[in-house]
Amino acid sequence: MGPQEHSELDMFSFFEQTPDLVCIAGKDGYFRKINQSVCIKLGYTEEELFSRPIATFIHPEDKAKTAKERASLLNGKPLVNFQNRYLTKEDNIIWLDWTSIYFPDKEIVFAIAKDVTERKLAEAEIEVAYKKFKGLATHFKKTVEKD
Length: 147
Prior knowledge:
Blueprint: H1 3-17, E1 21-26, E2 31-34, H2 36-42, H3 46-51, H4 63-74, E3 79-87, E4 93-103, E5 108-115, H5 117-146
Antiparallel strand pairs: 1-2, 1-5, 3-4, 4-5
């Protein structure tokens, strides 16, 4: 096995075995190649994912900001730590943190995403608790000042 074949085998192994979502998308906005993690996280078959534009899987509230970032990406600005929400086949929301690079000579985007849903939910819980604590602190301060 030559060095190039070995390198391609390593890349294929990484592509298929990483728990991260790895995909290659065309400039036209359709998936070209995905790993199993994409199917598992989104709950769709490969055929379902390939048959529709990627934008149809994005949460409606995140479509505009995603389109804006995608336009920048296609103009040569790499996408790093971009978070948006996707809807699974069961209509659950998952948060993904993307890093993407556009290869204009091949008109493809190579992208890798981490599922950060648990972290986003934990951050939301902390924010609710903080607001509650802040409200109680304000209430106690006003009560002390009044007394």
